[in-house]
Amino acid sequence: MARTETLPPSLADIDALAQSAVERLPPLFREHLASVLLRIEDFPDADVIAEMELETEFDILGLYQGRHVGMKGDEPSGALPDIIFLYRRPLLEEWCESGESLEHLVTHVLVHEVGHHFGLSDEDMERIEAAAG
């Protein structure tokens, strides 16, 4: 019997799922995301872990860094681009534990971070999700 190896989804695999999710967003949302970078990394860096007071690098699935849409127009010189980070290893752990499809999980986290780009707080998004559910 031939031995086959199964590898976990790579950074590129997660990126492909995220890009597919972006393409399914309404056109107005996609227009506002044109200048937002999407980065897939295995884990958040030490600065994010410290700033967010995380117990472990597995405690965050995604992060939006930047100025939300309502703050645009008066950007300081030298401002960094807006970035949505998705963290592969925490996403994979959540995928294994939740039983959700990886595509659904990546889409959910991406949409959550897009909400931050539009100035919504975690509480705003929880209320929207509760009302929709």
TrEMBL record:
Keywords: Hydrolase, Protease. InterPro entries: Zincin_1, Zincin_1_sf. This is Zn-dependent protease. The lineage of its organism: Bacteria, Pseudomonadati, Pseudomonadota, Alphaproteobacteria, Sphingomonadales. It holds the Pfam family Zincin_1. GO terms for molecular function: peptidase activity. One of its GO terms (biological process) is proteolysis. CDD domains: MMP_ACEL2062. Gene3D superfamilies: 3.30.2010.20.
